[in-house]
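Researcher: Please translate sequence to structure tokens.
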Amino acid sequence: MMLKQILRRVIYREKCSSESYIKWLRNQGVTIGEGCTIYEPRSTHIDVQNPGMLEIGDYVRITAGTTILTHDYSLSVLACVEGNIIGSVEKTTLGSNIFIGRNAIILKGVTIGNNVIIGAGAVVTKDCEDNSVYAGVPAHKICSIETLYRKRKENELEMAKKVSISYYEKFNKKPDEEVLREYQMLFTDRSEMPETLEDLMKDSSVEKLCKTYYKESTPQFSNLDSFLKWCGIGNEEIE
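Model: Translation complete:
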């Protein structure tokens, strides 16, 4: 295990881990807040040609294939036309509590507010307001964070049921907490904290807030078995 870690550092250098990449970016002059995660640094491209022109706030999660720019090289085309070199550098700012989906592109000069979700494959060409969800090419506002939360909450039980039945039908066995890790709030006894759920809370970067909610909330089912019975799993047939 130690040898693999050493080889990873040698081969991938600053991009061997989220922590090392963030440290390297800070050393280059990029402003990055606390609690940020870059899930796959090797496929992530963050512009450091103008490090003072990039600011990233707290609790920003950046997934695989993301590109964040502070400049472009269109000056090469203009130079061929007129012979003049005209730069194109603009400050790019990301607020706090942002999730950037896979293969999203954030163009130069964009400001993304706080509490924002950027959908996978989005191309962000204009500013994104606080508390909002953006997706598409070019990215546009889909809904507010409040609306997304309400929809997810309303559909949570049915989604958990679909995941459970799909797993049961495919593998011919009951799903466990690991399979249903994202839905454990529905059926976990608040007297204990499953490791799989705690890992999710840590990954969210707001573990303390999540644990407070967990302790103060009440599960809809007494345990996993009661939830699975509601799904029709464990009965004679699946409804």
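Researcher: Any highlights?
Model: The radius of gyration is 22 Å.
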